[in-house]
Amino acid sequence: MPTWLAAGFWGLVAGGALVLGAAVAWRATVPQQVIAWVMAFGAGVLISALAFDLVGEASESAGLLPVAGGFLLGAVVYVAANALLARHGARHRKRSGRQQPSEEEHPGSGTAIALGALLDGIPESVVLGLGLVGGGTVSPAMLAAIFISNVPEGLSSSAGMKASGRSAGYVFGVWGGIAVVSGQSALVGYLALRDASPASVAFLTTVAAGAILAMVTDTMIPEAFERAHLVTGLVTTVGFLAAFAIHDLGG
């Protein structure tokens, strides 16, 4: 398979995990505590992948200062965009309960939630494309981390969408659209940067990594802690170790 096509394919696969989570939430009533445990596990998986597969490797290519600058830039951009969307009804887009507003309660919230979900997904897809630029093949640990974390994201958010009265067309339209955009983002990321220098790729990778970490702490961990409470840290640790094991075995 050509590398550019592989970038789009793996981005689509990772985004498709959101649709899988949404399908589970729509077809079955999953206890909110179970959703919280899975969300905590997914958060740990992502944090581990950021540390070992993104930031650590980028630091070896570009050095500490560019990596730190990119990491902070990604976090600042994400937090600013997330704060803007939160004002329009997307603050609780990953919550599985009734925190998400309906369209009647907050007009325009449906669009804001969809844009927020897109904001959460694009950095992960870009990372997959950049990984192919740097190594020629997708990182199994990074792909697994994104896929594993996307399932509970789609599960929790879709449960909340369903609780707020949103239709199946809206729910699957959002996640199906994001899966397609995820594939496109990975493809564009690869095509735009396949001739870039290793230092440039490393810097942009850390920009995406900073955005992902901000997303984890702003949206995933609050949902996990609300329901899992004192075991959140333990489940997150298990997720971290699982991703580290994948990284270690793959390395």
Descriptive overview:
- Helix content is 84%, strand content 0%.
- It contains eight helices and no strands.
- It has helices at residues 3-27, 32-62, 64-90, 109-135, 140-163, 168-193, 198-228, 232-250.
- The chain is mostly helical and 251 residues long.
- The longest helix has 31 residues, at 32-62.
List keywords for this structure.
251 residues, mainly alpha, 8 helices
- Spans of at least 5 consecutive residues whose pLDDT stays below 50 are none
Number of strands: 0
| Terminal residue distance | 23 Å
Residues in β-strands, percent: under 5%
Q: What share of the residues lie within helices?
A: over 70%
Secondary structure topology:
Blueprint: H1 3-27, H2 32-62, H3 64-90, H4 109-135, H5 140-163, H6 168-193, H7 198-228, H8 232-250
Helix pairs in contact: 1-4, 1-5, 1-6, 2-3, 2-5, 2-7, 2-8, 3-4, 3-7, 4-6, 4-7, 5-8
Brief synopsis:
By secondary structure, the chain is mostly helical.
